Amino acid sequence: MRVYKRQAGSRAYKSSYTQAVLQKAVKEVQEGKISLRKAHQNYKIPLGTLSHRINRKHEHKVGHPTVFTAAEEKAIVDHINVVAAWGFLFDFFDLRVLVKTYLEKQGRSVKQFVNNVPSSDFVCSFLLRHKQELSLRKCQNIKRSRASVSANEVKEYFSNLKETLENGGQPIPAENIFNYDETNLTDDPGTKKCIFKRGVKYPERVKDSTKSATSIMFCGSASGQMLPAYIVYKAENIWSTWTEGGPKETRYNRSRSGWFDSYCFNDWFETLFVPCAKKLQGKEVLIGDNLSSHSQTIPILLPVYISIQICHLRMRS
Fold first, then answer.
1. pLDDT tens string 128-154
2. Dmax of the chain from CA atoms?
3. How high is the pLDDT of residue 144?
4. Pairing label, strands 284-288, 177-184
């Protein structure tokens, strides 16, 4: 994050006085108690600032307007906090990907972002604007087996799932009920900085591991139909030889870590699951876990594929 140091003798800016002092100086000038120049000398506030405030000029915030509205930024903050409460956290890259995915789903293009991907400076500014709700801290990973899930939470999940599958008296057929999960081939827990709700005492992230690994996504229906596998390699690019000799219709991708990120999950969802779901009649139910790349992407995908209902078992840390 950039830190600017003020040089000795430089012009006094807003940080040199409080809003209360400015309001007091403006009030005294408006009431004729002191002159504009006298207020400048007494309160060490620039003449231009006092003049503009008295004449109601330049009342908007200093700097370039934010890309998102206040309501949109609040929705992003709320989404981060909800997902973090489940133990699935955002880091800088995750937040940048979330912004890009949101913009693309809205059909918007932001010229300040290269390929609609915000820079790290955007994330720093975003966190600074919402420092009352968010903070950046190091966290420790906790395995799912150690995440404390009460009996009531499990009962509530199955109760909700039963209600979903019964579908108001029109049960979802077995061939329309899908369950997905992914696995990886290596494991090496570590720590990294993630974004939390301010005031969290024990920053923990529910994740099986953090070491880069080759990941495989499996998905099947309750009737026994299996979708093609989806494999994610740890690489910058995919070599053609890596896609040879695999199971029929297997799809391949890559990520820097070898883990599923929101890009990979979005690609799996749109290229493998959606084409299969479109061939079915009625409502489809997709059941999966709350891996961060899933829980961050599904709220964006769901409005696009509204006929598909997503069910998740929440695992709390």
1. 999 988 888 777 666 665 566 677 877
2. 87
3. 61
4. parallel
The highest-level CATH class for domain 14-54 is mainly alpha
**How do residues 243-255 score in pLDDT, each as one tens digit?**
998 888 999 999 8
Is this structure's pTM higher than 0.85?
no
Residues in the chain: 317
Give the whole-angstrom CA distance, residue 228 versus residue 105.
26
Is 144-190+206-312 assigned to CATH 3.30.420? yes
Six-digit token pair at 235?
């690489």
In the beta sheet, which residues pair with residue 184?
A: 215
